[in-house]
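Cross-check.
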Amino acid sequence: MSKIRIGIVGCGGITLQNHVPGVAMCHDLGEITALADISEPNLKKVAGLTGATTTSTNYQDIVSRDDIDAIVIATATDTHMEVAREAINHGKHVLCEKPLALNHADAKAVAELAEAKGVVHMTAFTYQFVPAMRYLMHRVQAGAIGTPYHLRSCRLQDWGSRNLGWRQVKKHAGTGELGDMLSHRVNFAHELYGEMKRLVAGLKQFVPDRGGAPSDLDDWSALMVEFANGATGMMESSKLATGRNESWRSQDYLEINGSEGSFVFFTERWNQLQVGKPNGTGLEPITIPQDFWTWPGSPRDPNEGDPLVSFRYDQMFEFLDAIRNQRPAYPSLHHGAKVQCVIDAAVLSSNEKRWVDVRY
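Predicted model, tokenized:
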């Protein structure tokens, strides 16, 4: 079968880190043939790496082409929905970075549009592809924790006061740490415990000037939540945990407790969980079965490269394999819209300093 022809809109860091190597790993399934970015240097750099021969500073030149099958959207948050709508209306399959939109209504509408048009659609929640996280979801779905009691997560990075570009500007990003990093943990929570019933949130900015440019977004965010199943949750995320490093080598912790057991997960321990049993003497480590080390069907060799980086490439395999086999991709735009609903509720709660119902 012919390769899936991919256009990437947005040629910044996340494209270089995740999408370009992801497609390279899946070279039998797809190829990057077109690029769009408002930055000519970014276009030139990614074109040189991928061999893409069609480039433009206008995304509409890419999404409207008949020789493009799928679009990867890796732009600033405020442009996600306009690019996605245009791509979907041209019949393109869509993989979009998170958070999906600046509000839940837009995210939900685009997810429904994608469904109505019959295209494959996916939200880039990369941490769903961590082997330990996948196995944890498997164990929870099998009933290993019994009645769920609590969920807590903590994401700590040290970004200091460096310039974050559009990510520090509210009109472009919508939220700061809440949408950037805590959104991944909200998605975890949905997959493990289901929908949230209500929440109370705190957002705080500590650094109003980043790298000589104003910032008007949160550097720290936290949620206290009640799930529809009766469980409770605590989630915290920060860009200012001094000395904690950045990205996948910084603190990323999740713990869940239930009547029949507890599980603890650290991203940096990609192939290990800690497990606690009723009346036990403490947590014991377990190794993740090798069947979970890669996404089903992925050509990735988990013994090659840095596993703290390369698990992300399975995301592209899932997208392209879903297109090839005409099936839904996971996680979908609907997953992204549900997270956006929680983000909206968290902003309202923080602004009004009160509990807020989450209305999906």
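The mean pLDDT is 97. The chain has two domains: 4-125+316-329, 127-305+340-357. Passed to J.P. for a second look.
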